[in-house]
Structures are given as C-alpha cells and as structure tokens.
Please model this.
Amino acid sequence: MSINESDKTIKTSLQPFLRDQDQPVFDEQWQVQALGMADLLIQSGLISANEWSQTLGKHLKHLQTTDADQLQSYYQAVLNALEELIQQQELLTDSQINYREQAWKDAYLSTPHGQPVKLAD
Amino acid sequence: MSSHDPDKVKDLYHTLHSHLPSEPALRVKTIENLLVEKGYLDQQTIDNWIEVYSEDIGPKRGAQVIARAWLDQEFKQRLLTDASEAIDDYGFLGKATAHLKALENTDSVHNLVVCTLCSCYPFSLLGMAPNWYKTAAYRSRAVREPRAVLKEFGVDLDDQVEVRVYDSTAELRYLVIPQRPLGTEDYSQQQLAGLVTRNSMIGTDRDLAKNMGG
Model:
C-alpha cells in the first residue's frame, strides 16, 4: 500500500462504524437478487469462488476509493463483478444484456400504470 | 418561476413513468431474466434463495452452534478440529463453497475476522454480512489497527490480551467462539444461544455477560 493510499484510508477511518444490529443488510431488492445469482452460479460451478472473490475485490477497490463506503457502492461492485464473470465465462454477452435491457425499458415505458409489464414478442 | 421549467418537465415524465425500475434494478432483472431463459439458473431457486437470505437466516444459526459448543466439550473439540464437518450435523451449509474454521477466544486471546479482499463471510451460518464488514475502512483497519477498531465497537482489551486477526478467503471462512459468560451454569442451550451476538462470532464483540438479564 502506498503512502497516499494509507492516507486515504485513515481519512475514511474517521467515520464511526455502525454498530446497530438492526440495520437492514439490503436497501433494495436488486441487491439481494444480484448476490443470490452470484452465490447460485458459484454453487453450480459456473463461476469459481476464487474468481468471484478476486473480481469482487477488484471492483470494490475501484468503487470504494471514489465513493466512500456506501451500501449502494458495495452492491454496485457486486453487480459489476457478476457482469464481468458472466461475460468472461461466456454465459451472456454484453450486447445480449444491453439488447434485453432496452426491451425491458421499452416495455416499462409503454405499459400503463397498474398493468403487468411484459416484453414485446 | 418560469412556466416552462425543464426540471419540472423531467419530474413530470418520471412521475408518469415512475414504475420504471432504477438502473441497477433493471440491469439485474435483465441478467436474471436471461440466465433463467438460457437455463443457467432456475427462477424458483433464485426466489427461494432471496426469501431465505432476506428473512430466515440470521446469526441465530451460529448462536445455536456456539451454545452447543459451550455445553458439549466433545462437540467443541470437533468444531475446533474441523468446523465444516461438525456443522454438517445441522445441514446448514448445503453445498458448502468454503471451509469453515472455528477460533476460540480465551482470557489471553481475542480473535477478529475480516476479509481484506472483498467480503467473504460464513453467511449460511451468520446470515448476510453486516454493512460495516463490507466497508473499506473495516477491511483495511482491522488488520492495521485491530485494537483501535475493537475499541470503536466497545471492546476495550487489556494489553496482555493478544489479538489475532484472521483474513477470510473464498476457500476459508472463520467463526469465532466467544467465551461463555460466568454465572450461566444453569442456562439451557436456548438461553445460552440468546446471549450470543452476531458481532461476537466475528470478533467485534467480546463480553457477553452484558446480555444476561437482571
């Protein structure tokens, strides 16, 4: 660790740790979904536990130096790591994901309130 | 205020389409949708995982294991020798993805667990990791200045107590066995389990006598 890096850590260390046992571990549903998918892919051997922890570690390092310790940034790192490994293992490609994401977006925007959101055929 | 405020128009647009999920939510939904469609994951399995981990599993499983170890010396020995094997009795781990090692606190030793790389954690036993466990501050400081970190958690250690910090990995995770409080000789396993905090099994809590009523 360089001196600059350790300076940065000392600064973030000024924040008090949260000791509250009752705080929610997930803010939003997508966070538990992302973590669940990662765990299940590891369990089924489609991604390895070691690759997962290395990749998550890399994304955490990247996000947590710029965005200090927010729960949101932790789960963003989970999502980024999940995407990276899914693509690396050739389960899905980036363009497949982007294409389907746009289809969902269109479906949401064109569905009136109160109606179930469905993908166009 | 102007009659045409671009921000207001944007707000109105978002209100009308307020059911469009946030960016990461939509991304996750998409990935889930595709992984299920291609047969890599099963929708029901994902839904079960979410239900179990958001509601059912908490540190209570770990607390049961600790209480049993306090009462049953033979079980404690098994736990210390091979925690994964000992805990197999409970059927908690399912398809275990990592080995588990138990670390016993004594009058002269305090164990503290961290994952400096990411956030490896025995979640089938302790539920989801607390938020502070995932922070960069905890991950770096627990190794560098464990006593100061412990102090912030309210654990003030005498100088003669040795602090041992264990760094979890994808392959090896840890469970701290806290010390059984004095004066609990008559307690049932259930009552003992009620004294065990999640933090004490990570090592950021030590004296459990404070949880005894009266």
Remarks:
- The longest strand of chain B covers residues 99-104.
- Strands of chain B lie at 99-104, 109-114, 162-167, 172-177.
